[in-house]
Amino acid sequence: MKSDFTQRLFTEQEQDLLFEIIMSRRDVRGNRFLPKEIDQETTLKIIQAGLHGPSVGFSQPWEFVIVKNPETKQQIKASFNTENTKGADQFCEEKKDTYTNLKLEGIEEAPLNIAVFYKPKNTPVLGQTSMPNMGRYSVVCAIQNMWLMARSLNIGMGWVSILDPEKVKTILNSPKENELIGYLCFGYTDMFYDQPELELKKWDTRKPLNEVIIEEKY
Amino acid sequence: MKSDFTQRLFTEQEQDLLFEIIMSRRDVRGNRFLPKEIDQETTLKIIQAGLHGPSVGFSQPWEFVIVKNPETKQQIKASFNTENTKGADQFCEEKKDTYTNLKLEGIEEAPLNIAVFYKPKNTPVLGQTSMPNMGRYSVVCAIQNMWLMARSLNIGMGWVSILDPEKVKTILNSPKENELIGYLCFGYTDMFYDQPELELKKWDTRKPLNEVIIEEKY
Predict the structure, then answer these.
(1) Strand A179-188 vs strand B192-193: parallel, antiparallel, or unpaired?
(2) For residue range A194-212, what is the model confidence (pLDDT) as tens digits?
(3) Under an 8 A CB cutoff, do B15 and A149 touch?
(4) How far apart are CA B165 and CA A209, in angstroms?
(5) pLDDT of A5 higher than 90
(6) Rounded to a whole number, what is the distance in Å from the CA of A186 to chain B's nearest CA?
(7) CB distance A58–B216 less than 8 Å?
(8) Low-confidence residues of chain B, pLDDT below 70?
(9) Chain A closest CA to B93's CA: distance in Å?
(10) What domains appear along chain A, each with residue ranges and CATH number?
(11) What is the largest CA-CA distance in chain A?
């Protein structure tokens, strides 16, 4: 008889390993990706990690589009180029210089792209009745699972958000009701930085703990 | 000299362990929490996992309010009660019966609550110029890291979303510009289910792979 619960207790060594994976995860861009293919089994492992993410009311409101076709990637990259120029213009001169020198995506360099969509239900969802964003947040939890799983597989992932989500939907023939949550690029890498690239390159500094942890009330 | 990159390659055994933690993570409610305290060091380990989550443009747009005061919890619980009644009313009769029999939160049973807020910047954020939700999504990635870290520490977490976010802000004296992303309850447990509770209780079924994975285009 299959028991309906587990008492699996993780050890300190296992906790440390999870923390090490969390600390080693980076946002990886085209300057670090290698052309080496990611095979189907490995791709599925990454997606399975997402599918075992939490979802509000067990709604599993996610869809994953696996993109490998160079023409499709080229079209996505064109949307990035347009949005990136618009994005850069929002920064003051000094920041803008730094911005334009950063490599912010790896759409074409990454052998595997996955577009992750939120598919809303047209019936009520348990847990989403007071906070309508919960379905979107479930999809984000899936993405974070995929990110960690990829890193453990020694595969880098980059989340490209400098895109027009409506353009991406059109390129991928997405149903109208779907919403793009994340456009993800995956590839083996020549290395992983040991700090976030934007921290290394002094775009911003890490916030001190006392700025982000509040006891009991503001 | 500190190197600025790491070649840490994880092994198959380590990949399997991460997958096991991902698979063992549950949404835990008051029916499973034990009153045992979570000490400060352990609480910080959970928050540190969040702080090493990805954030758009390295913006770290998160704030964590640690709530242990029973009076505060009581007020939060009152908001849950109101929203839960409204939520239940949205379901048809049969589903509503099941809904009202589910224990959907553990606010008072959990020794530790953490309210996680998104703090928007009033200057442009790299990576958020085309997709304004990216800051919120960064906070969700932090929460998913916390969830996994807690599970590895053999601590259950429940994400309570049946709350009026504005009421929670008022209760916690939150600055007006902050937005509640997740209200999290943490505690040791008597056990972890080996499936999502809503799957076990037949609220919904797991979607087949071919419904959520799309090759190249819709």
Answers:
(1) unpaired
(2) 999 999 999 999 999 999 9
(3) yes
(4) 24
(5) no
(6) 15
(7) no
(8) 1-6
(9) 13
(10) 28-191 (3.40.109.10)
(11) 67
